[in-house]
């Protein structure tokens, strides 16, 4: 039975991936430190179902802890590592850039070193569309020259991609870096816009809109993202950087309207200036993902938002 280590496995994307891999008869080791960036109880709830599976194993560990990582990697053989653990968030990274260097860059190097030492040849890295910065050329292509990240979070993800290439070149590790575009769906982090807007609108509280509401995002439903991640685990692509998005954009005003329609309440809006680190648009060119991974996103935002709101309401009961 193939064994896969998923770092950040109790988080939003990670917990969905663990369940998908278990359904495919994989042995899954979930590494998570239950960081208090948001409630650890949320993450514990995310893996309640997986914990009932005999092929699921939880390893509470911080990716900065070299000693614990060494013991974990020495305790068994991993066929692949999917590295999703990270300190997330554009705006928080501006306030505390050092922790993003420490966790995202330092932690990634620790995991690459473990793969080198233990001869693990498949590594999938969860990157971000944030690396494209304020890119005026749309849709965003993996061929774009990236030299201007506009937040420490984006810079840390771009640095991790560079280290991934270095370890591929030096040690012949097959590495795929997946640039995720605004992932949403059940279990989405509570600080992310769709989840936060839904909670605030439902509670009759004001939501904050930065700018005039015309900014656009390529919102990608969690099931589509997991399809892409799973396909990347099964492919030995040497080294590749691949966008995973819907390749469609939704205006912020339209997003709020969809949430209003599905929650059954009108939003109270507080308008604020655009924030440092924010970009006016994200838009994925997914032709490479289609070619190399057979990636075919299926869930448009008009179907994804109702699915998310239903999950949200179920949690509130």
Layout of SSEs?
Elements lengths: L2 E5 L4 H12 L3 E6 L7 H7 L9 E5 L5 H9 L5 E4 L6 H6 L1 H22 L3 E7 L23 H20 L2 E7 L2 E2 L8 H10 L3 E5 L5 E2 L2 E2 H12 L5 E6 L5 E2 H12 L4 E5 L14 H7 L7 H16 L1
Parallel strand pairs: 1-2, 1-4, 2-3, 4-5, 5-6, 6-11, 7-10, 8-13
Antiparallel strand pairs: 9-12
Defining key terms:
single chain; 317 residues; alpha/beta; Rossmann fold; seven-stranded parallel beta sheet; two-stranded parallel sheet; 11 helices; 42% helix
Structural overview:
The protein is an alpha/beta fold and 317 residues long. It has one domain (3-186, 221-247, 283-298): Rossmann fold (3-Layer(aba) Sandwich). The chain contains 11 helices and 13 strands. It has helices at residues 12-23, 40-46, 66-74, 90-95, 97-118, 152-171, 193-202, 222-233, 252-263, 287-293, 301-316; strands at 3-7, 27-32, 56-60, 80-83, 122-128, 174-180, 183-184, 206-210, 216-217, 220-221, 239-244, 250-251, 268-272. The strands form 4 sheets. A 7-stranded parallel sheet has the order 3-2-1-4-5-6-11, with helices on both faces. A two-stranded parallel ribbon has the order 7-10. The chain has a two-stranded parallel sheet with strand order 8-13. α3 packs parallel to α5 and α7 (193-202) packs across α9. The termini are far apart. The model has no long low-confidence stretch (mean pLDDT 95).
């Amino acid at each position: 039975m193939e064994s896969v280590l998923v770092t950040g496995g109790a988080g939003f994307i990670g917990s969905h991936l663990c369940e998908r891999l278990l359904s495919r008869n994989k042995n899954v080791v979930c590494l998570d430190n239950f960081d208090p960036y948001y409630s650890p109880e949320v993450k514990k709830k995310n893996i309640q179902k997986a914990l009932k599976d005999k092929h699921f194993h939880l390893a509470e560990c911080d990716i900065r802890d070299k000693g614990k990582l060494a013991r974990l990697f020495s305790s068994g053989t991993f066929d692949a590592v999917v590295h999703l653990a990270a300190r997330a968030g554009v705006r928080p990274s501006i306030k505390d850039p050092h922790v993003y260097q420490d966790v995202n860059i330092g932690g990634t190097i620790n995991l690459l070193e473990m793969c080198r030492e233990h001869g693990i040849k498949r590594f999938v890295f969860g990157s971000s569309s944030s690396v494209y910065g304020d890119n005026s050329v749309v849709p965003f292509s993996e061929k774009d020259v990236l030299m201007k990240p506009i937040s420490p979070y984006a810079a840390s993800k771009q640095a991790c991609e560079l280290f991934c290439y270095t370890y591929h070149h030096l040690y012949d590790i097959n590495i795929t870096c997946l640039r995720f575009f605004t992932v949403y769906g059940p279990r989405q982090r509570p600080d992310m816009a769709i989840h936060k807007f839904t909670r605030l609108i439902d509670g009759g509280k004001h939501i904050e809109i930065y700018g005039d509401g015309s900014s656009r995002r390529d919102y990608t439903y969690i099931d589509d993202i997991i399809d892409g991640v799973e396909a990347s685990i099964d492919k030995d692509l040497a080294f590749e950087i691949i966008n995973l998005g819907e390749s469609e954009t939704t205006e912020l005003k339209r997003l709020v309207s969809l949430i209003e329609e599905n929650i059954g309440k009108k939003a109270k809006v507080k308008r604020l200036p655009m924030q440092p680190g924010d970009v006016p648009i994200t838009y994925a060119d997914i032709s490479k993902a289609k070619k190399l991974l057979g990636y075919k996103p299926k869930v448009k935002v008009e179907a994804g938002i109702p699915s998310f709101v239903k999950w949200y309401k179920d949690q509130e009961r």
